[in-house]
Amino acid sequence: MGVWIWVLVFGFVWGIGAHGLDRHPHTERISGSAGDVLEDDPVGRLKVFVYELPSKYNKKILQKDPRCLNHMFAAEIFMHRFLLSSPVRTLNPEEADWFYTPIYTTCDLTPNGLPLPFKSPRMMRSAIQLISSNWPYWNRTEGADHFFVVPHDFGACFHYQEEKAIERGILPLLQRATLVQTFGQRNHVCLNEGSITIPPYAPPQKMQAHLIPQETPRSIFVYFRGLFYDVNNDPEGGYYARGARAAVWENFKDNPLFDISTEHPTTYYEDMQRAIFCLCPLGWAPWSPRLVEAVIFGCIPVIIADDIVLPFADAIPWEEIGVFVAEEDVPNLDTILTSIPPEVILRKQRLLANPSMKQAMLFPQPAQSGDAFHQILNGLARKLPHNKNVYLKPGENALNWTAGPVGDLKPW
Amino acid sequence: MKLSALQQSYTNRRSNSFRAAGGLDSSVDGSGKSPAAIFWLVLHGLCCLISLVLGFRFSRLVFFLFFSTASNGGTSGLYPSTPFLGTTADIAGSLSFQANPSPNLELPPNRTAGGISSSRVVVGRHGIRIRPWPHPNPDEVMKAHRIIERVQREQKLQFGIKNPRTVIVVTPTYVRTFQTLHLTGLMHSLMNVPYDLIWIVIEAGGTTNETASLLAKSGLRTIHIGFDRRMPNSWEDRHRLEAQMRLRALRIVREEKLDGILMFGDDSNMHSMELFDEIQKVKWIGAVSVGILAHSGNTDELSSVAHKKAEEENLPPPVQGPACNSSEKLVGWHIFNSLPYVGNGATYIDDRATVLPRKLEWSGFVLNSRLLWKAAEDRPEWVKDLDKLDGVREEIESPLSLLKDPSMVEPLGSCGRKVLLWWLRVEARTDSKFPARWIIDPPLEVTVPAKRTPWPDAPPELPSNVKEISIQEHTEKRHAKSRASRSKHSSRSKRKHESRTADPQVSSKVSEE
């Protein structure tokens, strides 16, 4: 009799286990170097205080040009809105772990829609002067427990040309702060040690509107749409994308497996869902919204950017999800891609199909659990508790307030 | 431009210096100064002059070039920190292309700020790497196709139909000119169906080798049955006979207890692949929408009137199939509106008038084969038993006659909104001849325009055209600089004779290229 009870219990448990497996036959769990942290809930693990800046730093800029809400740098605006109504926000700065400054540095747009970074250093400087004189928390740590969202091309170097950005370096006043930025490249001047890399903003509703049925067979092997040569800014060639995009075009323009061109089709999103590999090569900067699009549409990203640091690299194991190709190996791209065993490809597709993976790349309005906002907070929470030597002794000064080009010192 | 001038001045000075060195050598031997020292002095002066012109230290560039060729152009570490300006970088780039034409070229990075070690990846101008033969490799292409196929198979497993059922296709046919046309089309559609298939072909007039040879090419599992009656000439009788042939097929399904989904694939219809995916959803009996392509034989006065009327009223293309209300339940049927064609429809197969479909075509219905079995356990009560229809000589117009309760039909294809197959009846004249199995044996020697088929009476002037084309081909081959053997048919003589008339045409043709 006892034996039968054990058999029943065993069968019951096994049945539940098998049923649990059946529930997600085509996805796989994602665990990065920091562990299984994609689904962590940051609420309760940290407190963020939002400074009240005058509206000339945020609202007025947005009113002048509402295009800032749709371009790929819109994360700074949406992060502000998210934090204002989030449960991690605290109105008591004494109990805050992190301090956020709502400043929209990437909203000075040309008529074409590209942001001009020339006034951003002065704007940032003026904001920091404001918060350091009105609140004591900046001077307490010289900014080490403050974080800023700087989604521009090269982050806080505030320039779109890489050579000039390297020359300027990160704004000296932000040296100790945590920077939340889209740019990431190892051993690069514009990536600070403790920075959090985020994906560029991609409009979630627009992408949802273009979903096609999952059973549509994937018949395109490699897909890419975009520039190969930037004739306006790089007429002689060789500078744009370090020659990698041009190499892709010259080597594979007549290859039927590679569906690559410079067109702007209206079916761009639908085509990505019919492709197995999507190329994400570098442009003038190594990051691009193509990565986000590839992840959302289940297309394996082929990342061609040496030493790139991808978003949330400690939470998402990008090595297992995407394919990394060195820029010098671009001529052998077809050999590399066809020599990947099919089981590996299927596993990558299963990882991409995981809904928490897609959520982590998006900035939905209103915010949902597991989305990019929460991943940023998770990243900030993982950096807690602050090191003791972050708090400066009275009289000690770590930052040089007059460093940097003379033009930056002008008031804004 | 500036570059070539520099180059010239550089080479001039080089040659000058050599001449000077040579001269000095000869004159200096006697004076006692070492010629090597003077040579180096002159070389140094030369480099100074060049640096003056260029604006930067020329020797550094030379050393850099030596190092870059030695280190295989790799992304090596830090270089000395003198910044290179944009223009000098151009000159350096092009000069080095002169000296070392390898495509790998990298320049040292600009001055780095702060004490951070610079990136291993260098900023600046890079070469565009192109492999020696930048074309697709057939092995890679095959591997890629295998990967694509594996991925699609996985997709079908995950998102497609689970437990697909066998598809049983019933096709009535008979031997006629257009049989090969229609049957080949149907056959290729069926060969592309990803599920198991049983194809029941009923042939009026008995089985023939004609049809059997066609079916053998398909590689599908076929049941080829002969029906004893010959196909009549009038459309009415033809439809009636086809219905009886289909019933015969249903009886076979019952006897053999074939399990699967039964659909009626007429050999003149066009099926989309989605149809076969959609019919997997049927439970007992389903209906799909059929697009009717009622085709008028030619622009007779009678039929054109009907067409104009239809166009004026802006009628949507006629579709037969289930009609649903807003809650996706079957409420009725759309049938073909034959009013515009009243009195103008074709009665005989040879007619040039429009061929009309029946009210409800058989091909729009799909059955679960278990409906026909003698003693299926879960067969619903609203189905008549096939046995009972054997004895009664009533008209069976559509599968609805098999049901006691026609409202139990399931509408498929998002409730009839998707048209998944198209109906079209095109036949040649009943007296038209065609070669058996479409094999011309023995080969044709003489072609004579047939008087009874609608060819124009005077065939076009073929022979002169052919000659001109061959001449153009020959001259084009010449222009392509191929020293291939001249053709053996004495083209030279032809060219001489016809060159005068053909030349303007040839030259115009060549100039087009």
TrEMBL record, chain A:
Keywords: Glycosyltransferase, Golgi apparatus, Signal, Signal-anchor, Transferase, Transmembrane. One of its GO terms (biological process) is plant-type secondary cell wall biogenesis. Residues 1-18 form the signal peptide. The keyword Transmembrane applies. The keyword Transport does not apply. One of its GO terms (cellular component) is Golgi membrane. InterPro entries: Exostosin (IPR004263), Exostosin_GT47 (IPR040911). It is a single-pass type II membrane protein. Belongs to the glycosyltransferase 47 family. This is Exostosin GT47 domain-containing protein.
UniProtKB/TrEMBL annotation, chain B:
It holds the Pfam family Glyco_transf_43. Keywords: Cell wall biogenesis/degradation, Glycoprotein, Glycosyltransferase, Golgi apparatus, Membrane, Signal-anchor, Transferase, Transmembrane, Transmembrane helix. The keyword Cell wall biogenesis/degradation applies. It is found in: Golgi apparatus membrane. One of its GO terms (biological process) is glucuronoxylan biosynthetic process. Residues 451-513 are annotated as: Disordered. Its EC number is 2.4.-.-. Residues 477-498 have a biased composition (Basic residues). This is Glycosyltransferases. It comes from Vitis vinifera (Grape).
